[in-house]
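Quick log. Single chain, no ligands specified.
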Amino acid sequence: MNETLDKEYNFEKKIKTDNDIQLNLFQSANNATIRPIHYLGSKLRLLKTISEVIDEVDDTSGVVCDLFSGSGTVAKYLSAYRPVISVDIQEYSRVLCSALLNPNESKYSVSEFVEMCKNSNHSKLLKKCFIKLEQYEEKCIKEGACGNLEPICDLLDNGSIITYEKGYREDISYQLSNTIEECIKNICELKLNDRAQVLVTRYFGGLYFSYKQAVEIDCILEQVFNLEPKYRDTYLAALLSTASDVVNTVGKQFAQPIKARNSDGSPKKNILKRLQKDRIIDVFECYEKWLNIYLSQEKSNKNHKIIKGDYADVLETLDDTVKVVYADPPYTRYHYSRYYHVLETICLRDNPEVSMNKAHGISRVSRGVYRKQRHQSPFSIKSESYNAFDVMFQKVSRINATLILSYSPFDETKESTPRVLTISQIEEIAKKYYTSVEIVSVGEFSHSKLNHNDKNFEINYNAEILIVCKNAINGGENNEKHNRKI
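-> predicted structure:
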C-alpha cells in the first residue's frame, strides 16, 4: 500500500515538473507571439505568411480588420505594425483581444493580486463550502492508484453539481451523492446558490477541472470582477489562459469532458494518468505566470479597436480607411461555441440555462454542460452558409477593401470532416464582387507570388490556403439582385 502511494507521489511530482517546464518555455518564447488559449484551427504557425500576403496587397501599413478574431493571435501579430480592428461575436474573444491589443497598466503587482485571491474572505468561504468534495476527489484518486478505478469513473460521470441540482442522479454512487448534498447545503446556508460567486465550481467542477481547481478559479474570478472595468480585461484574459492550460480534456478543448469508461462500461485503464496529468496543475501558480505575460505586453502606439458583434453588422460600420479584411470563418458543421463555452461562461458570469440532450426517449443535461443559448454561426449551417459568405464578400467589397480568406482544404474522396462549402463554391461567390481572385497555398505546395496564373496547382489537403480577393467590381457597388440564397 505505502509503496503504491510512493509511486503515486513520484508520478505526481514528475507531472508537476513537466508542466512547470512547459509553462516556463512558453513564457520565455512569448515576446514575439502569444498563444493565449489552446484554439481549434489556430493560425500561430501561419502568422508570418498571413502577414506577408497582407503586406503584398497593401504596402501602406493601413488598417486591417480581423473579422473572426477567435483567440486573437492574428490580430496580436499584425498589431505590431498596423492599426487593427478586431471583431468577434463571442465575449471571451473580445476579452482576449482587448488584453492583447490594448494592454493596461497593472493596478497591483502580480504577487499582490494573487495573494488577494488566495486570502480573500470569499476564498475562505468557498474552501469551506467545497472542502468535502475536494477531499472526496483526493480519496478517489488514491483508490485508483491502488487499483479501484470505479470511484474515479463515478466522479467523472456524475460529479457535476449543476446536473445533480437538476435532478439527474440515477447512476450516482451513495458516497458521491452524499458529498454533493453536503456541499449544496453549505452553498444554500451561505446564500450562494444561483449566485455567480460559485459558478465555475457548480457548473464545471469535477468535469473539466478538479473541484480544488474550480474553487480557485472562482476565487480569482471574484477578485477580477471586483476590479474597476478598465483593468478587468487583462486580469480576466490571464484567467482564461489559465483555464485553457489546466482543463482536463482531450486537446485542451471544452467540447467534452473526458470519458472514463469503455463502450462496455468498464473503466479505461489509463484514466488515472489522464486525470492526474492536468488536475495536479496549481491554478494560482499558472495564473501568476499568465498575468506576468499579459502585464508585460508593450503598449502599442497604434489605434486598435476591439468590437464584439456579428460580422455582417460590423462590416456595415466600416469605411474605406480599412485596407484589408482578413477572415477566418468556420467552415464545418461544428460550431466553435461548443469548444469554448466554458470560457464564454467565465467571462459572462451569468449562471446560464444548460442545454438538454434526448437519448432513448429520455432527456437529461448535456454531458458537456453546454450553455442553452450558444452562438450558432451561419457559416456552419449548410442551408445558411452560401448566403453568409455572399453577405461577407458583398459588404467587404462595398468599402473597396481587399479580402483575404483563410481556408482549410479537404479531400472529398477521403473520410475527413467535410467543409460546408468547397473552394470552387467560394470562388464562385468571390468573383461576383472581385475581378481578381487568387489562391495562395501556405503548405507544402507553396506559391508565394500573388500573380501566379495557374489556379490548378496540386493542393496539400493537410495545409491551409489563402483566397486573396482584390479590385472590387464597380468600386464595391454590386447589384443586390445577384445575391444568391440557398
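The first strand starts at residue 63 and ends at 66.
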